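Hi R.,

Here's the chain you asked about this morning:
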Amino acid sequence: MDIVNSWDKSLSFIEDKVGDSIFELWFKPIKAGSLKDDILTLEIPNRFYKEWIEDNYPEIIPEAIKRTTDKDVTIKFKLAERQDKEIKKIQRKLDSRRQKLANKGIYLNPKYIFDSFVVGPSNQFAHAAALAVSESVGKRYNPLFIYGGVGLGKTHLINSIGNVIVDDRPEYNIIYVSAEQFTNEVVSAIRHDRMGEFKDRYRNTDLFLLDDVQFIAGKERTQDEFFHTFNALYEKQKQIVISSDRPPKEISAITDRLKSRFAMGLIADIQPPDVEMKVAILQKKAESEKINLDDEVSYFLATRIKSNIRELEGCLIKLAAHSTLTGSIIDLDMAKNVLREFLHDDDRPITVEQIQKAVCEFYGIRMQDIKARKRTKEIAIPRQVAMYISKKLTDLSLNDIGKAFGGKDHATVIYACKQTDEKINKDESFNRIVDNLMGRLKP
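And the predicted structure, written out as tokens:
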């Protein structure tokens, strides 16, 4: 197989999926190395690329290779930069944990441990509850229900519980799954007449970690299976930990019997952090990654990146990647230049172009597609979302919004807003997507 030619085709697939700006920064610099025994070696500029890809798009490269070559491969990264000895040691430890988890079929993030979680007033209660659960599985706070906005640390805490149990109690059977994956497995089990296998797997575990439970809203069969799984585990005193972007009572289109189950244990929330907390998170991340970050830049990022912690840490990694590539230090001027698309200016109004860019990046489509006449579902839904957000966050008339989308008329904008409104009210996961996009854009 011509690996270079295949990699070029894979890159085209990735570009279509992630959008131009993400592709140019994070994927275009990757070079094809060698393919041996179904292990594909890819050369990347530095460790920050490896971290960012593993955190944000862990499956996209194997998927791209599969689509272009019909071959399943394992990805191995080769770093162009020389690594610090201590960083190498940390990386080996992470890789060892990742391999141990993979061998057990548990897909926890090996970096998400309690030691790397910064505790403050906004998350102290949720952290204490998660720690208590990890020390006394199935005996205290069962179920534990953690809720909070996107990117505030719910997944970190849930993974931390799992990683403690993997290390301290290797005999325990652990399942960590997103609600979306759980739903897909229910559908697959029904389709292939394997509900028996499904029930055996989920009802015979010691620790069940379910992320983003709001995704099962409106999915009756999935809710029914989850209800019976919950009961089976609870009766055996097996630990259940659930995360959501909102408290149980605010998850619409979910049965009352499930809501009552969620409230049987402990409900803990995570609030958005204040500026001081953001600075502490940035500095701890910088220290662990051996990134030189001064106080001036820390406070600048903490005050100007207003979406969530995940985005804040992503910006730090972006600065570090740029620094090692160019050999320049991370200072205020560099931060303003490299992160200009992420920084909020409270006095500057939001533009339709900013909205279009954010929506296109989220859905992995091109800017020209959202303005074109294409009516395929892959384009129509993002276009309707962008029109809806434009109506909500700008002062433009319906006609002006339509013009910004390739000359559409005001009736098209009205229809787009109506369709989006209806979908928001019916679909919790779609509602979360729109909320997340608007949160990124609001000053």
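The radius of gyration is 23 Å.

Let me know if you need anything else.
M.
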